[in-house]
Amino acid sequence: MGTIIWLSSELMFFAALFAAYFTIRAVSPELWAQETADLNVPFATANTAILVASSFACQWGVFAAERGQVGRTGGLLNFTKWGLREWFILTYVMGAIFIGGQALEYAELVHHGITMGSSAYGSMFYLTTGFHGLHVTGGLIAFLFVLGRTYLARRFTHEQAVTAIVVSYYWHFVDVVWIGLFFTIYVIK
């Protein structure tokens, strides 16, 4: 219950960012038309696909945790036999790739002169995507804690499965927020 209440407060935080984005965009439509031309939509689409795929990997890890399967029971390339660890490690790697992609995109936009202080568009772009990136990084840290607990514990318990489920709620939330940001920033422009 506490996780759902906390995620609701996070939803309000991102709702405020969306409201600010649309408000500033409404008063400066010509700025938005000019600055969004520098966005690399195909790259952002690929980066989004990686983050969305990580949500599926995370959920398969949760299914393994619910079965009480911590580690794989077959070969490394036999995905059907993977346990919580393998799925959460894959999720972590995909999330880290997403963050790396965001950093590359930031470097490209800075090269084009779009910075946080360059315009209202730059401010809103970096605030919305930056706070999302911080949330993704927080999720990556949570995955490390869950994985660490599975390696340190003598046996896998129901409490560890619940922890994995709670982390998955957060990860799915972060993914859904990104889908909203992606459509707002890259599709609607």
**If you compute it from the alpha carbons, what radius of gyration comes out, rounded to the nearest whole angstrom?**
19 Å
Q: What is the H/E order?
A: HHHHHH
Shape: elongated
The percent range for strand residues is under 5%
Quote the average pLDDT: 91
Q: Under the CATH scheme, which architecture would be assigned?
A: Up-down Bundle
Q: How many helices in DSSP terms?
A: 6
Tally of distinct domains: 1
For the record, what is the CATH homologous superfamily label?
A: Cytochrome c oxidase, subunit III, four-helix bundle
Strand segment count: 0
Distance between the termini: 36 Å
- The proportion of residues forming helix, as a percent range, comes to over 70%
List keywords for this structure.
189 residues; mainly alpha; Four Helix Bundle (Hemerythrin (Met), subunit A); 0% strand; elongated
Your description of this structure?
InterPro entries: Cyt_c/ubiquinol_Oxase_su3, Cyt_c_oxidase-like_su3, Cyt_c_oxidase_su3-like_sf, Cyt_c_oxidase_su3_a-hlx. Belongs to the cytochrome c oxidase subunit 3 family. Keywords: Cell membrane, Membrane, Transmembrane, Transmembrane helix. This is cytochrome-c oxidase. Its EC number is 7.1.1.9. This protein is mainly α and 189 residues long. It has a single domain (2-188), classed as Up-down Bundle (Four Helix Bundle (Hemerythrin (Met), subunit A)), CATH 1.20.120. Helices cover 80% and strands 0% of the residues. The chain has six helices and no strands. The protein has helices spanning 2-27, 29-35, 41-67, 84-111, 120-152, 158-188. Helix 4 (84-111) runs antiparallel to helix 5. The longest helix has 33 residues, at 120-152. The radius of gyration is 19 Å and the shape is elongated. The relative contact order is 0.17. The mean pLDDT is 91.
